[in-house]
């Protein structure tokens, strides 16, 4: 395919790895970002974005509160669906390991208009996701010590929400500074954090397994959730599935760092799949053993404090605190990875002159070899999102839900056009790279069906997610639909009437043409 999205033969890989620069040239770009990241760095980027400990510890309480222990089954359900998406992405990553992967892939497969909308949704979702991840500090730090509850004593939802904004803003400022100093520093911190997270995850699984209080049949207990509701337990289960859906996304980050990685055409597809599979296996064991190990399954704190309560009550205060500090490390590197991926996406759109001030946003700092301005801008927007929700007691579920919905929509902007091209016989993976072969079509169909179904499920105007406490207003209950719709419609309107006529690879970023 060319930069305009027309079909063309895939470039043949070369032994020296220059195939990846050929892919850039095919897209119309010249190599600018320094290739310094190795295989583990690529894997670490994907798994730190997913972040097993961050996601499970942040929303375990939500899953149990709305679905009971049986919500655990949403974990393999979400994995199965996201695996279809990841497999489709792996084919794309093998051929086009490029910065801002979702934006460039949707542009190549669906044309410039679909590409812009996909990039816009993904970029906005990334900034909302950064804010959502930063909120996880509040779920953990005050349980380590009350000294981290700077605003009030945390006895009210409003106090916890305001304190979450404060802690989250500090974390975002940190990721902003680290990302501004270049990908090497980011990769070192991220890889060290991921190593700590993986070790802590395995240790936590073993510790929970040594303190089991009941058998695995606990995952059949619904706690009577959904009783008297129109859909019964199915409705409660679909609501609780938000807790699992929040964890297993962001695996495309391994490809989004492709322009800074060594041989990403081979490493990125493997990193995408390994990150997702490892997260599923380890995260599923944590959730299962936590439900089996908690001393009192009906303690109300389980649906309020979540996994943090399980760890402290089952493992004891001393060991529990050590685990929670590891969770803090995981949250930190997760936020760092989310911020990093968002920067690459903004850079990718800017060098196509698809954002206001594109030339400045796409400028690579000569010393730090990274786009510094996007790092600052994304951080400030994420902090602003937190500040706007400072008095919202449901800040955790609202911001998290909106972030997930927009990610799923952005992923659909890739998998749906990819399916259309498959049906037309216009898609071929790169030679000697990851390929689904004959399984490509059914996998792609399942990816689209899954993405559509979960987008509808997550955006469904449930009061328990978007307006659980008073005052009750229709626009709060429909907040996700209204916000996502406004972002999509407003953004595309701006693109169509303003930016569309300016789009095109900026001269300073364009590949050299041979006479």
UniProtKB/TrEMBL annotation:
Topology within the bilayer: Multi-pass membrane protein
Spans through the membrane: 40-64, 70-93, 114-141, 161-182, 194-213, 233-251, 272-294, 314-347, 368-389, 395-420, 441-460, 475-497
Superkingdom in the source lineage: Bacteria
Subcellular location: Membrane
Assigned keywords, A-Z: Membrane, Transmembrane, Transmembrane helix, Transport
Keyword Magnesium among UniProt keywords: no
Annotated stretches, region: Disordered: 1-23
GO CC term (a single one): membrane
Regions of compositional bias (Basic and acidic residues) in chain numbering: 13-22
Segments forming a coiled coil: none
InterPro entries given in the database record: AA/rel_permease1
GO MF term set: transmembrane transporter activity
Protein name: Amino acid permease-associated region
Organism of provenance: Streptomyces violaceusniger (strain Tu 4113)
